[in-house]
TrEMBL record:
Pathway: Secondary metabolite biosynthesis. Belongs to the cytochrome P450 family. It comes from the Eukaryota. It comes from Coprinellus micaceus (Glistening ink-cap mushroom). One of its GO terms (molecular function) is oxidoreductase activity, acting on paired donors, with incorporation or reduction of molecular oxygen. This is O-methylsterigmatocystin oxidoreductase. The keyword Oxidoreductase applies. Heme binds at C470. Its cofactor is heme. The keyword Iron applies. It holds the Pfam family p450. CDD domains: CYP64-like (cd11065).
Length: 539
């Protein structure tokens, strides 16, 4: 059929317009893409909803494109704000839209997110894999896997080394790297963003691969940032044309206008470099009997691999590579974004710093720095980190799930294949649950100086939902909480000043993408006293 159409177009366009084979092929490609796009929503609607149930509320779209343009306009200020606004406009926590035939359901309350992604998790644990994302596989490990036996095996392997109990064993690494961070911060306070990125990257690289070489740290931290930024772009609706016209995946990378494909190829190469090259290095060190300072996840997984002639070897090795890679990707950049948000929260809330330092001085004293074992005795410090997770959601809409089979909820029809997202930002800024939700108030998590059992833990929404909840959340919390305690033990975070002595505002402004990070900002980090700085030399 395609040959017949090509011959027809070639005869018409070649004779009357003078187009060559390459131009005719491109026109055929675009014609097929548009035809597929136009017919897709029509065919979908003809097969769905046999009971005639209404779809959830949402704004009306236009033919073919659906709500794409409305969503695109809202992306500039953050689509989570757009969906939350629609929820109020339609008086519904369920908002349904379509974009180029793709149905999307946004859940704007914890109740809705829990009902579907927790209580009906078998039907809502799969991932939507847009064409751009599939072109990166297997580089994204667990994140880019559909729900099934392979995902479960990878998740199990990951959980062995990053569950709440095991993470306690990584405290020596976290402590060592945090002390190094404090010294670097004291030497280069203006470079606090890079120094912070290096801290969390170093922690995860050492835990994952057992590397303690500073050059290796720097290279892998940069690679992680490239991967996470690429992943964030891939998940952003409409960012790549191939998600709208899947047939474009067959366009060669050298073709004019195919810069997106070259970009994806670059991200894929970085993924492969880490998944294969870095893991291969760990295997080589294991063969040579070279021990790292602390047991690494890669090293432990390698020890458990069956003999190479075992039929299951290739499968088990692939699982080991993925489990190591996921921790490296997930922890290296998202925790950094949270830490950058912490600086903004602290500089704009000096009373929070004061209360935290009073707690540190009372519990620990001024003659030593905190240790990881001190954290349970620092409820206000822990409340700061909880409030940070609520106030600044690094992944405001979570990673999209997909509805595996047609479903009904509250009398509404949810079609098979619907992209389902929990609006974590809306949930964590719900005025019905949180007083002054836009304000940074750690005390909301305390009651009489102790953890408040009635306060909604941000972990309920900030780390994902159901079986897809972020498995690295325990390590992230552990390292971020200790960083917060250590930072405020030694330093004050204050406003930077311009040449005229005026304070430079530090505002929480983020760029586009599913994973958000604060835009560059200025602050000053100054020692509390010479005595506090002197403590850095005692570790």
């Amino acid at each position: 059929m395609a040959t017949v159409i090509f011959d027809f177009l070639h005869s018409v366009l070649g004779a009357h317009v003078g187009w060559g084979d390459q131009q005719v092929r491109l026109s055929l490609l675009l014609l097929l893409a548009f035809t597929t796009l136009a017919l897709h929503p029509i065919l979908r609607k003809s097969k769905r909803n046999p009971q005639g149930l209404p779809l959830p509320p949402g704004p009306k779209g236009v033919p073919v494109f659906g709500n794409l343009f409305q969503i695109a306009q809202g992306t500039q200020s953050g689509p989570w704000h757009l969906y939350n606004g629609w929820a109020k406009e339609y008086d519904s926590d369920l908002i349904y839209v379509e974009a180029m035939g793709q149905p999307v359901l946004v859940l704007n309350t914890l109740q809705a997110a829990t009902d579907l992604m927790e209580r009906r998790s078998p039907n809502y644990s799969d991932r939507l894999l847009p064409p751009a994302l599939t072109m990166l596989k297997p580089g994204l490990g667990l994140t880019g896997m559909t729900y099934g036996p392979l995902w479960k095996a990878n998740r199990r392997a990951f959980h062995q080394y990053y569950n709440k109990n095991v993470v306690q064993k990584y405290q020596p690494i976290i402590e060592h790297q945090t002390m190094a961070f404090l010294r670097r911060l004291n030497a280069k306070p203006k470079e606090f963003m890079e120094v912070t990125k290096y801290l969390f990257g170093s922690v995860i690289v050492q835990i994952s691969y057992g590397l303690s070489d500073p050059v290796a740290y720097e290279n892998l931290v940069d690679a992680a940032e490239t991967i996470v930024r690429g992943f964030s772009e891939v998940l952003e609706p409409g960012r790549f044309w191939v998600d709208i016209f899947p047939i474009l995946r067959y366009v060669p990378a050298w073709f004019p206008g195919a810069g997106w494909k070259r970009k994806l190829k670059g991200i894929e190469e970085v993924c492969k470099q880490v998944r294969q090259g870095t893991f291969d290095d760990a295997m080589e060190r294991a063969k040579l009997g070279i021990q790292s300072d602390y047991p690494s996840v890669a090293g432990q997984l390698i020890e458990k691999l069956p003999p190479m002639d075992d039929p299951s070897y290739a499968y088990e090795e692939s699982v080991a590579r993925n489990a190591t890679l996921v921790a490296y990707i997930a922890g290296a950049d998202t925790t950094v974004s949270s830490a950058h948000g912490l600086y903004i929260a602290l500089v704009n809330n000096p009373d929070v710093q004061r209360r935290a330092q009073e707690e540190l001085d009372t519990v620990i004293g001024k003659c030593r720095l905190p240790k990881p074992s001190d954290i349970p005795r620092l409820p206000y410090i822990r409340a700061i980190v909880k409030e940070l997770s609520r106030w600044f959601n690094v992944i405001p809409l979570g990673i999209p799930h997909i509805c595996h089979d047609d479903d009904e909820y509250r009398g509404y029809f949810i079609p098979k294949g619907t992209m389902v997202m929990g609006n974590s930002w809306a949930i964590m800024h719900d005025a019905a649950r949180f007083d002054d939700p836009l304000e940074f108030k750690p005390e909301r998590y305390l009651k009489d100086g102790k953890p408040n059992p009635d306060a909604l833990d941000p972990e309920a929404a900030s780390f994902g939902y159901g079986r897809r909840i972020c498995p690295g959340r325990h390590l992230s919390n552990e390292s971020l909480t200790y960083m917060t305690a250590s930072l405020l033990s030694v330093f004050n975070v204050v406003s930077a000043k311009d040449a005229g002595g005026n304070e430079i505002p530090a505002r929480l402004q983020t760029g586009p993408g599913f994973i958000v990070t604060p835009m560059p900002f200025e602050i000053d980090i100054v020692p509390r006293s010479k005595e506090h700085v002197a403590l850095l030399n005692e570790f």
